[in-house]
Amino acid sequence: MTAKKQNQKIKNAKESGKKLCEEFENDETLEKFRQFAPESKQFWVCNGSNISHIEGLSDAFESMDDPTYDYHANGEKNDFSNWVRDVHGDEKLAEKIKNANNRKDAQIRVLKYMLNKE
Question: Where are the beta strands (DSSP E) in the chain?
Protein backbone atom coordinates (compact mmCIF):
# COMPACT_ATOMS: atom_id res chain seq x y z
CA MET A 1 0.00 0.00 0.00
CA THR A 2 1.41 3.39 -0.94
CA ALA A 3 2.02 6.10 1.65
CA LYS A 4 -0.53 8.32 -0.09
CA LYS A 5 -3.19 5.62 0.13
CA GLN A 6 -2.38 4.96 3.79
CA ASN A 7 -2.59 8.67 4.58
CA GLN A 8 -6.02 8.81 2.92
CA LYS A 9 -7.19 5.79 4.93
CA ILE A 10 -6.04 7.49 8.13
CA LYS A 11 -7.76 10.72 7.15
CA ASN A 12 -11.00 8.88 6.37
CA ALA A 13 -10.85 6.90 9.61
CA LYS A 14 -10.15 10.04 11.63
CA GLU A 15 -13.01 11.90 9.97
CA SER A 16 -15.31 8.98 10.74
CA GLY A 17 -13.97 8.96 14.27
CA LYS A 18 -14.59 12.68 14.74
CA LYS A 19 -18.17 12.31 13.50
CA LEU A 20 -18.71 9.37 15.81
CA CYS A 21 -17.17 11.23 18.75
CA GLU A 22 -19.38 14.25 18.13
CA GLU A 23 -22.46 12.05 17.93
CA PHE A 24 -21.65 9.82 20.88
CA GLU A 25 -19.45 12.04 23.07
CA ASN A 26 -20.68 10.40 26.26
CA ASP A 27 -21.32 6.95 24.84
CA GLU A 28 -19.96 4.07 26.92
CA THR A 29 -18.53 2.35 23.85
CA LEU A 30 -16.05 5.18 23.38
CA GLU A 31 -15.47 5.81 27.06
CA LYS A 32 -13.68 2.50 27.45
CA PHE A 33 -10.99 3.76 25.06
CA ARG A 34 -10.51 6.87 27.21
CA GLN A 35 -9.91 5.07 30.49
CA PHE A 36 -6.60 6.19 31.91
CA ALA A 37 -4.03 3.67 32.93
CA PRO A 38 -2.59 4.25 36.40
CA GLU A 39 0.48 6.47 36.23
CA SER A 40 2.74 3.51 36.98
CA LYS A 41 1.29 1.62 33.99
CA GLN A 42 1.25 4.37 31.39
CA PHE A 43 3.20 3.65 28.22
CA TRP A 44 6.49 5.52 28.25
CA VAL A 45 7.69 6.08 24.69
CA CYS A 46 11.44 6.13 24.04
CA ASN A 47 11.15 9.76 22.86
CA GLY A 48 10.10 10.82 26.38
CA SER A 49 6.35 11.11 25.84
CA ASN A 50 3.78 8.91 27.50
CA ILE A 51 0.44 7.37 26.55
CA SER A 52 -2.28 6.86 29.12
CA HIS A 53 -5.24 5.43 27.18
CA ILE A 54 -6.09 3.67 23.92
CA GLU A 55 -7.46 6.77 22.23
CA GLY A 56 -4.14 8.44 23.04
CA LEU A 57 -2.32 5.53 21.42
CA SER A 58 -3.96 6.36 18.10
CA ASP A 59 -2.89 10.00 18.48
CA ALA A 60 0.63 8.90 19.38
CA PHE A 61 0.92 6.76 16.25
CA GLU A 62 0.13 9.84 14.20
CA SER A 63 2.68 12.10 15.85
CA MET A 64 5.62 9.75 16.46
CA ASP A 65 8.29 9.22 13.85
CA ASP A 66 9.01 5.85 12.26
CA PRO A 67 12.26 5.16 14.19
CA THR A 68 10.37 5.65 17.46
CA TYR A 69 7.64 3.24 16.35
CA ASP A 70 10.24 0.74 15.13
CA TYR A 71 12.04 0.86 18.48
CA HIS A 72 8.87 -0.37 20.20
CA ALA A 73 7.47 -2.60 17.41
CA ASN A 74 9.79 -4.80 15.40
CA GLY A 75 10.43 -8.45 14.60
CA GLU A 76 11.44 -9.18 18.19
CA LYS A 77 8.73 -7.38 20.17
CA ASN A 78 5.68 -5.16 20.07
CA ASP A 79 5.52 -3.04 23.18
CA PHE A 80 2.29 -1.34 22.06
CA SER A 81 0.48 -4.65 21.67
CA ASN A 82 1.79 -5.88 25.01
CA TRP A 83 0.65 -2.68 26.75
CA VAL A 84 -2.86 -2.89 25.30
CA ARG A 85 -3.12 -6.54 26.35
CA ASP A 86 -1.46 -6.32 29.77
CA VAL A 87 -2.69 -2.93 30.98
CA HIS A 88 -6.03 -2.51 29.22
CA GLY A 89 -6.91 -6.21 28.98
CA ASP A 90 -7.92 -6.04 25.31
CA GLU A 91 -6.59 -9.18 23.62
CA LYS A 92 -8.37 -8.54 20.33
CA LEU A 93 -6.97 -5.05 19.82
CA ALA A 94 -3.54 -6.19 21.00
CA GLU A 95 -3.51 -8.83 18.27
CA LYS A 96 -4.52 -6.29 15.63
CA ILE A 97 -1.71 -3.96 16.69
CA LYS A 98 0.76 -6.84 16.76
CA ASN A 99 -0.07 -7.64 13.13
CA ALA A 100 0.34 -4.05 11.89
CA ASN A 101 2.98 -3.48 9.22
CA ASN A 102 3.97 0.02 10.37
CA ARG A 103 2.77 2.89 12.58
CA LYS A 104 0.22 4.16 10.08
CA ASP A 105 -1.24 0.69 9.73
CA ALA A 106 -1.31 0.40 13.52
CA GLN A 107 -3.15 3.71 13.75
CA ILE A 108 -5.72 2.61 11.17
CA ARG A 109 -6.27 -0.64 13.06
CA VAL A 110 -6.82 1.19 16.36
CA LEU A 111 -9.20 3.73 14.81
CA LYS A 112 -11.23 1.04 13.03
CA TYR A 113 -11.40 -1.01 16.21
CA MET A 114 -12.59 1.99 18.20
CA LEU A 115 -15.25 2.63 15.57
CA ASN A 116 -16.23 -1.04 15.73
CA LYS A 117 -15.50 -1.46 12.03
CA GLU A 118 -12.87 -4.16 12.25
Answer: 43-44, 50-51
With CA atoms as reference, report the closest residue to 51 among 21, 82, 83: 83
Our CA angle for 2, 59, 80, nearest 5°, is 85
With CA atoms as reference, report the closest residue to 77 among 113, 49, 110, 46: 46
Query: What 3-state class would DSSP assign to 78?
Result: strand
**Residue 87 contacts by C-beta under 8 Å, 6 or more apart in sequence?**
37, 41, 43
Per-residue pLDDT of the chain (118 residues; tens, 9 = 90+): 677 777 777 767 666 656 655 554 555 667 778 888 889 999 999 999 999 999 999 999 999 999 999 999 999 999 999 999 999 999 999 999 999 999 999 999 999 998 886 5
8 Å CB contact between 51 and 60: yes
Distance of alpha carbon 93 from alpha carbon 103, whole angstroms: 15
Do residues 35 and 71 lie in contact, with contact meaning Cβ atoms separated by under 8 Å?
Answer: no
